[in-house]
Amino acid sequence: MEKFPVIDLTPYLEFQKSGNASETVISELCGKVSRTLKETGALLIRDPRCSVEDNDSFLDMMENYFEKPSEFKRLQERPELHYQVGVTPEGVEIPRSLVDAEMQEQLKIMGEGSRPIMPQGADPKWRYMWRIGPRPGRTRFVELNAEPVVPRGFDGWKDRMDSWGCKMVNAIQVVAEMAAVGFALPKDAFTSLMHQGPHLLAPTGSDLARHGQKGVVFAGYHYDLNFLTIHGRSRFPGLNIWLRNGEKVEVKVPVGCLLIQTGKQIEWLTAGECIAGMHEVVVTDRTLEAIKLASEQGRSLWRVSSTLFAHIASDAVLKPLGHFADSPLASMYPPMCAGEFVEKELAVINLKGNGGRPSAPS
Q1: pTM of the predicted model, to two decimals?
Q2: 94-143, pLDDT tens digit by residue?
Q3: Radius of gyration over alpha carbons of the chain, in Å?
Q4: DSSP codes, 4-62
Q5: Torsion angle of the four alpha carbons 252, 54, 197, 32, in this order, in degrees rounded to the nearest 10
Q6: CB-based contacts of 68: which residues, under 8 Å, 6+ apart?
Q7: Which of 31, 38, 76, 345 has a CA between 20 and 30 Å from the CA of residue 84?
Q8: Rounded distance, CA 31 to CA 179, Å?
Q9: What is the dihedral of CA 75, 347, 332, 327, to 10 degrees?
């Protein structure tokens, strides 16, 4: 993603700590964050608190987990909790592009070079959901704030998941504060709503030994329903994103950097000033090159994404904030409890389930 500047969070972190920084420099940096999120729906950052070693250690553990037999992994499956904790097996998540008629119409008018690869069915990827951070003592949405599931035989699982997840939440909180300043909102406009949100560390596992053929779709064209999504660098390429202007871009995350994408909740809070970023994960020529190299080096052929979904608190109200309430588009984003919004979205993509079977929207 050479066309994207990398935002180094160090100056803002130092400003948070000491307050010693030029207001002009900080204002320009925050403006760059909000402008990039608005124009592209994506942001590359460098956070000195998130090291390459942290990401590698996490990927190593998750490769080890996903390589386990399906029978073992299914012991961590919790469909009765909307798959919001534990493992989601392959063949459960349904790409939005398969069930959203309006989205399908939009795809028809896309140019050939920017059109996504249409999946033939549910995603052939696994995912593990691990809650990060404290949950509210009382909530209307208990199943969205469920206790985590720990697989047997993985020493240090909880510590490693919590450590990497908390570091990524902390990075998002800084970006959220900077974005709020850049959008001329109070600096805590977003972060206050994130407090005790159902943040989820949600790494995916895709078996490239079985599905490593060019054009295979691991995650069909979709947007994320949460506030902001953050990814560490994967060992196998394959993530494509769509900019606001409709341009399709293959993601190339530099070593030591993190990728942030806008979700549906920030679209709601800004009345469409930011829109939820569309993306897909497919096997590309670059994926095949990485598969060949990993095979030669005897490394795992599971493609793991170190993904975290940062959410607005379930009982908080989603509505356009501050001056965004005066936007001519504000009526498209009526007030709604964040937990209610999440449950409706999960029903569409088959995660609000009954043993993996589709369930009616709530």
Answers
A1: 0.91
A2: 887 888 888 888 888 888 889 998 888 888 999 999 999 988 888 888 76
A3: 19
A4: SPEEE-HHHHHHHHH--S-HHHHHHHHHHHHHHHHHHSEEEEE-TTS-HHHHHHHHHHH
A5: -40
A6: none
A7: 38
A8: 7
A9: 0
